Amino acid sequence: MRRLILLAPLAAVAACSPEKPFVDLPPAPLGYTVMKQPDVVRQTGHFTICYADRDAAEVPGLAQETCNRYGLQAKVISTLRYQCRLTAPHQANYSCIDPNKRMPDGTYINPLNPQQVLAWKRATGQMPDGQGSPTAVAPPPASVLGAPPPAPVPATLPESPAP
After folding, report:
1. Residues 123, 106 contacting (CB under 8 angstroms)
2. Which residue stretches of 16-157 are H helix?
3. Nearest in space to 21 (alpha carbons), one of 70, 94, 115
4. Taking the CA atoms of the chain, what radius of gyration do you get in angstroms?
5. pLDDT digits (tens, 9 = 90+) for 92-143
6. Engineered SS bond to 67: which of 32, 46, 74, 82, CB 3.0-4.6 Å?
7. β-strands 90-97, 22-24: how paired?
8. Distance between CA 47 and CA 39 in Å, rounded?
9. pTM exceeds 0.70, yes or no
10. d(Cα 109, Cα 117) in Å, to the nearest integer?
């Protein structure tokens, strides 16, 4: 019996064999059931891969495979040890980038974010200010400019007949 008690923790640790590297997805909010995981890469341009020491060589390939779905390149942002799960304890944080889309200060943009692409186009002179902006107001058509002003609306309502 004593031997069984000593072997139980060893068997439990042995059952936790290391996992292959995987893209870690955020958990669903408490109380919600998620039928389809959100596309984190499309939303943020970033993702995390969890891995064990013995699989570290596979991580760049998995990262590039993830970014290839969007026609982009993987760029490692940081690596943190002992920040993921017990069976895949290390964390590598990546961004999907387009190496041709850098701001003038050298920082990469998220090429999947329309606002960042628009800001990049303006900053690099590829689009004049005010063009393509979602808040830009188009000038009124010429037919409206030559039209007479609308008739004034009376300030008071007509009297209704007495009952």
Report:
1. no
2. 40-44, 59-68, 114-123, 142-145
3. 94
4. 29
5. 999 999 999 999 999 999 999 999 999 999 999 887 655 554 444 444 554 4
6. 74
7. unpaired
8. 10
9. no
10. 7
